[in-house]
Design brief:
69% of the residues lie in helices and 4% in strands. With 454 residues, it is mainly α. The strands form 2 sheets. A 3-stranded antiparallel β-sheet has the order 4-1-5. Strands 2-3 form a two-stranded antiparallel ribbon. Strand 2 and strand 3 form a beta hairpin. The longest helix has 34 residues. It is globular.
Length: 454
Amino acid sequence: MDKFITACKNIWKIKDLRNRILYLLGLLFIYRLGSHIVLPGINYNALDTGAAGGGGLLDLINVFTGGAFKNAAVFALGIMPYISAAIIVQLLGFAVPYFQRLQKREGEAGRKKLTQITRLLTVAITLVQAAGYLFYIQSSNPAAISTQVSEPVFLVSNIIILTAGVILAMWMGEKITDKGIGNGISILITVGIIASLPAALVAEFNFRMDGAGGLIAFVLELAILVAVVMVTTLLVLGVRRIPIQFAKRTMGRGAGNIPEAGKRDYIPLKVNAAGVMPIIFAQAIMFLPGTVAQWMSNDPANMPGWLNSLNDFTSIPYNIIYFVLVVLFTYVYTALLVNPQQYAEYLKRQNAFIPGIKPGKKTAEFIDMVTTKITLPGSIFLGLISILPAVAAAFGVSIAFAMFFGGTSLLILVGVVLDTLQQIESHLLMRRYDGLISGRLKNKGGMMNIGASM
């Protein structure tokens, strides 16, 4: 505890770091304030009883926006349209030559062009989602719409406001990345998730204290949640280090080329290279049955039983299919991100090699084999984490609190917190201060991040 307090004092002493954190907190305050400003023409008292998400993806969006989706606020769509646009552009980079050229060959100019395309695509997606969101409110809770405003005026004005809210959130995310700490877009999502946690925690505590297990059951839930967070942290940080050696290195002017004196570097291959993307893609596919069900009938009793089960995230068929999709998408996305041939070419250019493996094709095959092996346990763990909310709900945990036991929320939360701590740690270490936490969150043992060098 004393070391943590000392580290906080050191953070405040560093002017640049202090200004970055204050800048971050200021923008986050504005973002959270906008999550409580209700759209014009909305009766919040009527909306509060029936407009909250309709289950599944809608509940997840409400968690990501910190309740703004339920509140019909200015930031009701949060930063999700920008995330969708970024995913689309990233996928186009794997399939379309024009986007591949922008990503790999045109350097800074290409990245600026991709950023511009992402922003324009964000606006287009937001216009569609804003209209859909307003129609959803009208159909699910007509009493929440003020009768003093005509429907065209209500729709047009609020579509503009929702679009402006997304653009403002996108701007704040980019500014946090440039002038604050951490990845701004991810931090905005994380703040929304954290904002939903206290209410879910209090509701679960009251539920348990009213006779559903008492204090012991509540403490046990917290202990399990801590254990799940620890396992998720291991998954996010886990790497397989492949040792490499350099044939010879130049040791200063006039020293000549001499062999490396027993020191090794490493290629870090992440156990979960795909991150949270497989869960996002799998959730998008699992949302389709619910959409089909709404088209078929507004009465769940008239829908086929199998379709109802796929629309219930706590059902066994839903979770089996969801688990399989997460595992498959983990392999697919890892194959897109990790290119063994690029690693082999980089090692060859650097006059380096993997001990016992021939350079070139054999090196690429070896890296591909190792990647395949470590992806298997990584994909299984990711699949298990993705279905943990349903498992928690099956054991009597409330739906709102069960969402924090796994899935996208937990992975984003853990990943963003670790990334932010690493950046703060770097600022402290550059100025020769002790780190923020013990067991510094950085790669050790001379690990070489080849992926960042390509």
